[in-house]
Amino acid sequence: MERVIPIRTGIKAGTAAGFIVIGVLLYLLLLAGSEYLVHRNGHMNPIFKIDAADRERFDWVILGASHAMPLDFGGFNSEMEKQTGASILNLAGPGTGPLYNRFVLEHFLREHSTDNILYVADGFAFRSPMWNEDRLADGALLARTPFHLPLALNLAGYVLAEGVDPRALLNYLTGFSKLNNRERFRPDIWEGEAIFDRTFKPSAVAEKKRAEYLYPAVADEEAARERYLEEFGELVELARLHGARVVVAKFPLPSRFAALLPNEAEFNAALQSQAMQYGFTFLDFSGAIDEPQFYADTDHLNRAGATEFFERHLKPILARKQAPLNSSWDSQLAGRR
Amino acid sequence: MLFTSLSFVLFFGATLAGFLLLPLGWRWLWLLTASVVFYARFGPANVAFLLGVTVAAWAAGLWIAGVRTSGWRKLALASGLTTILGALAALKFFDFLAGEVERLLAGAIDLPRLGLTAPVGFSFYAFMAAAYLVDVYRGACDPERNAGRFALYISWFPKILAGPIERAQPFLTQIPGSLRFDPILAVSGLQLIVWGLFKKVVIADNLAPVVDNAFRIAAYASPMELVIAVYFFAFQIYCDFSGYSDIAIGISLLLGIRLMENFRRPYLAVSTAEFWSSRWHISLGHWFRDYLYIPLGGSQRGVFRRYANTMAVFVVSGLWHAGLGYGVGWTFLVWGALNGAYQWAGLATRGFWKRVSAVLPRVSESTTLRLFRIVLTFHLILVSWIFFRADSIGQAVTIMSKIWSALPSLPSLATRYPFTADHALGAVLIAVLVVIEVLDEHRPMARRLAAAPVALRWGAYYAGIFSLVLLGRWQAGEFIYMQF
Question: Where residue A278 sits, what CATH number does that domain have?
Fold first, then answer.
């Protein structure tokens, strides 16, 4: 029977050490190159946006998942700033729940400040670790997250206190996802931005698939929601501690798609009750725009939709340099709808 | 816990540390514990199957060796083989066949189901256990009286998921005396691990998305897309499976254990007979030769029996491959039968080629003819892989007919095809593999590296390691063969 025949004459300790040292140096060299590419091709990653911010103080910071992202596509954020006179930084990230957004906000508040926070809430982001702990460990996001030692220490805290996979920290510290990033030479542009000017043709199959993707089966939905509402409460407290007022909004969704989402009424009620408890304003715009021509895909506003939504609802909010402490703007804004 | 996961790195680090710290006499027990823990990570229930096969084979081995009369020995062997191979057949095929019978009878009857699937690696360790019993029966192997050491042979963690299907005698004779860290073996082991990982996470897993996309929509895919997918799959399955074997052999060497070679540059075979007998999945090929082909009479009982035995081996090999990876289906039977037919063609034309060699010795030994035969063999195997990978015979036929009808216009289709970066990367990786294999065929790469200047040698090592970091797909799926 054939055997593997060893050829070399073994390992000498000094030689092995030399091999490892050179290997580590090469790794560090490649890591430096990867970090450079992260900065050169950075665009969408919220941590990159904080690094690239041209001012320390903002009137508004926008947080949330992908439904908030169209407000920063194709120069739309600059347009909003021009029309409202407010400085706005959009730090929303795709598929990110309150845990990830708190992590981002903590980094933002380290060297920046804001008077107001607009948090775009989605039911899906409050019911599964997939959109929270798992996002902090997601190689695709880590691959585009610039390195900061304080951020690494903060991530270590999330590993210890929030149950984030320890491999996330190891990945971030070693920069493995950056080195291993297949898209390393391409700009960090989310797929949604590429279709910002497109109009979606409604498709029941696509809508069902999307809803199933956003709302995977979870063991105990009630407990999960409670947990992430608590995390969100901490985010609100953090904002308050830094002098920022919070407005929570649900962004428009086509009614065909909204009808597929489970337990939205319960989620709204829970947010409403949290609004009372923490004293933030909760605005539900989910039914505000229904026409398919305002959507780029199943559930994201396109340029026309974002413009329509901004003109009709968002402008008066962002134009105010200071959000109200509590009670709803519903009554104030009702006349504008 | 796959070889490519961080949890395996931690597991192996702990295993190696314990191995080095413990005295020689205790090491086999430590490695047995590690092997059971490793297997349990794929589901604690799997350990019950592993234990069942281990106990059945160990007890039957002692029974065979303990009885004197031929009848009792045969009974002991038959009992052991029926238990082990019967369990394998039941787990693999019972539910599938019940479904097929119901389908044939148009739902007229409702057959019961086991509701079980073969646990990961079962096909491999069941065959090892069966080989052990036959070897004990034949006197080729002493029965192992120490149940723990026998359990280590069956459950040895580097090979339990996808082989090699190691024979008992060479393995057991290495325990416990060979369980030492040997720097010479360690260098070979590390070389094999890096090479195996390169084949798996860099080549196989970068080819996989192109293959999966085309096979998923085979009926709608363009002929060019299918051509690319079929070529890529040939290299994907080779790199996936041989990558696993290399890693398994490499890890074993780090722990002082030598396993048999399982692949020897199969796509450089000059005939399908050579491909199957001494280059592809060698441990399985030898298993079928020793425990099926020869007991059936091999080539010793006339031409008809030789042909029938050859076909039997390949059909059974097809059945063995039917599993979870690409489903249990008739495609595997066709794949086996097609390879059996290749062997028939080889047998039928052997006399003719011998005469040609005698008349034209220079032509038969020419590099051009050798190259032609390599390319021909590769393409014959390529066609059979379509059945291996397809979801159904219908899908395989669709793919082949689409490619066949487009063959004359393939060059023009290729010029118009929108090749992507994934295609380019796949082609480059295949080219790298082929160059290395050709060099290895003429002079082993390990020998070349040993003779090379240190800068070149280290450069090769760093190139291998950093290509894993830069190009590897570490989040990709399981090894294909561990699912069979």
Answer: 3.40.50.1110
* Within-domain flag for A261: yes
Pull the structure tokens for residue B114. 């086991």
Give me the mean pLDDT over the B313-329 stretch. Answer: 76
Residue A111 lies in a domain: yes
For residue A206, give its domain range: 57-141+191-334
Whether B86 has its CB under 8 Å from any CB of chain A: the answer is no
**CB-closest option in B261, B462, B470 to A3:** B261
Q: Is A180 on the interface with B (CB under 8 A)?
A: yes
| Per-residue pLDDT at B330 | 82
Question: Per-residue pLDDT for A321 more than 80?
Answer: no
Find out whether B141 and B153 touch, Cβ atoms under 8 Å: no
- Cα radius of gyration (chain B): 23
Task: Answer whether B167 touches A (CB < 8 Å).
Answer: yes
Asked if B470 and A30 come within 8 Å (Cβ–Cβ), the reply is yes
Nearest chain B residue to A184, by CA: B470
Cβ-based contacts of B182 with chain A (< 8 Å): 10
The share of chain A scoring above pLDDT 70, in percent, equals 92
What is the model's pTM?
0.87
Task: Identify which of B260, B446, B450 has the shortest CB distance to residue A3.
Answer: B260
Of A1, A26, A167, the CB nearest to B466: A26
**Under 8 Å between Cβ of B111 and B98:** yes
| Domain segments of chain B as ranges | 6-180, 185-298+370-483
* A80-94, A296-310, A312-326, B326-340, range with the lowest pLDDT: A312-326
Query: β-pairing, A245-250 with A113-120?
Result: parallel
Yes or no: say if B205 and B241 are a contact pair by the CB < 8 Å rule: no
Query: Which of B462, B467, B468 to substitute to test the interface with A, most A CBs within 10 Å?
Result: B462
User: Residue B183's closest chain A neighbor by CA?
Assistant: A10
Q: What is the per-residue pLDDT across B224-270, written as a single tens digit (0 to 9) for each?
A: 999 999 999 999 999 999 999 999 999 999 999 999 999 999 999 99
A170 touches chain B (CB under 8 A): yes
Asked if B437 and B448 count as a contact pair (C-beta separation under 8 A), the reply is no
Using CA atoms, how far apart are residues B249 and B247, in angstroms rounded to an integer?
5
Measured between CA atoms, how close is B469 to chain A, in angstroms? 6
What residues in A contact B449, CB-CB < 8 Å? 7-8
The CA distance from B259 to the nearest CA of chain A, in Å, is: 7
Lowest mean pLDDT among B102-111, B136-145, B208-217, B260-269: B102-111
Q: Which one of A3, A5, A7 would you mutate to disrupt binding with B, by most B Cβ within 10 Å of its Cβ?
A: A7
> Is ipTM strictly over 0.95?
no
| CB-CB under 8 Å, A8 with B187 | yes
Sheet holding A245-250, edge to edge: A88-90, A57-64, A113-120, A245-250, A281-284
**Number of folded domains in chain A?**
1
At A290 the pLDDT is 92
**In whole angstroms, what is the distance from residue B73 CA to residue B134 CA?**
11
Average pLDDT, chain B: 91
Over residues B80-104, the pLDDT tens digits come to 999 999 999 898 888 888 887 888 8
Please choose, from the candidates B145, B124, B351, B388, the residue with its C-alpha nearest in 3D space to the C-alpha of residue B259.
Answer: B124
Q: What is the rounded distance in angstroms from the CA atom of residue B111 to the CA atom of residue B106?
A: 12
What are A41-55's pLDDT values in tens digits?
999 999 999 999 999
